[in-house]
Each structure stands twice: as C-alpha cells, then as structure tokens.
Amino acid sequence: LYLEITSDTMPKTVAVTGFSATSATSLDSLVIPSTVTYNGTTYSVTKINQSAIAHSNLIRAIVIPNSVKTIENYAFWDSHNLTSVIMGDSVSNMGIEVFDYCTSLSSVTLSNALTYIPVGTFDRCSSLVNITIPPSIKEIKERGFRGCSSLDSIALPNVEVIGEDVFLNCTSLSHITYSDSTKKIGKNALFNTAYY
Fold it and tell me: Going by C-beta distance under 8 Å and a sequence separation of 6 or more, which residues neighbour residue 93?
C-alpha cells in the first residue's frame, strides 16, 4: 500500500493513496491495517483516497478496518476480480461510485455508521447477490444498485428514500422488503426488474 500522512499532530493519521501491483501478484486478500508505524511513530489509517485502489484486477477480497472513517470517490472503481468487501463500522463518509463496475463483486458487508448509500455505489456490479443494508441507512442515492443483474432480493429496514434509477436493470430482482418509513421511490427506480 502507498500511504500519505494526513495529520502529524495528535491524533496522527494517514490515508491510503495507492496500491503496488508488483507486491501483490498472488494476493487474494488485502487487509488494510488499522495502524502503521513510520520512523518510530504510529499512525491510524483513517481514509482511503479517491481512486486509491481503482482498476486493480489482482485483489479478490478487501477488509477495511474500524479505524477507517472515510472512503473517497471511485476508491475501488473498475476492480473486476474483487469478489468480497468487509467494511469496518467506523466508515461514516463514502464518496460516489466507490465500487462502480466491480463486475465480480458478490458479497458486501457495509458499515453500520453509514446513513446513506451514495450515488452509483454499486452501479454495474453484475455479480452482487449478498448485501445487508444496515438499519442506519435512511437513503439510497441515484443509481445505487443500477445494473446489479444477479441481485434477486434485498431488505431495506429503515430506508426512507430510494433515488432515481436505484434498481434500474436489476433484472433478477423479484423481492424487496420495504420499511414502514419508506416515503419516496424515485423515477425508474424499479424499471427493468421483475417488478416492472
């Protein structure tokens, strides 16, 4: 991993900025550390920068530690061999299209600190079949799951707002468990699913 220091005063923190393919030619799983030590100083890993691990076709599974609070835009975009993501429960800020076009991604554990799923988070994740939406999630933004053609069921325990095109082209989706608090379903949210 490539890291940069984001704070050299307490609390001392670093961000993941990139990934070295040469050191991971046989890596099935990338476990991001919660802390790193540099020149005798220990830093917490609190952020994954924009596009930090995008276009990586070497990693099959990623474990994000509880120390990480922010995942920026496109962080894992277009990582075609990625099949599994386990996200620690401190992630409360996530950018757009973080897992967009991860076509082999089948299983995701989301953080219980997230309050919404950003725009295009799982857009075109055509192998996604196993995802649990935490009770903390109140909104799914536009294109959240567009093109997840293997997804056949999903429970939305506390989701109040479902944005435009959220489940567009989820052709296998035949069962959605809505919340009693669901107030809005956006345009084309269910178009080209088993519902519509």
Answer: 69, 70, 71
Separation between Cα atoms, residue 161 and residue 116, nearest integer Å: 9
Question: Does the structure show a pLDDT above 70 at 22?
Answer: no
DSSP SS3 for 67 = coil
What is the SS3 assignment for 139?
Answer: strand
Backbone φ, ψ for residue 23 (5° rounding): -90, 5
Closest CA to 87 of 108, 56, 116, 57: 108
Taking the C-alpha atoms of residue 183 and residue 162, their distance in angstroms, rounded to an integer, is 8
pLDDT tens digit string along 166-184?
A: 999 999 999 999 989 999 9
CB 154 within 8 A of CB 179: no
Reduce the DSSP state of residue 37 to 3 states and report it. strand
CA distance 82 to 166: 22
Average pLDDT, the chain: 95
Amino acid at site 169: N
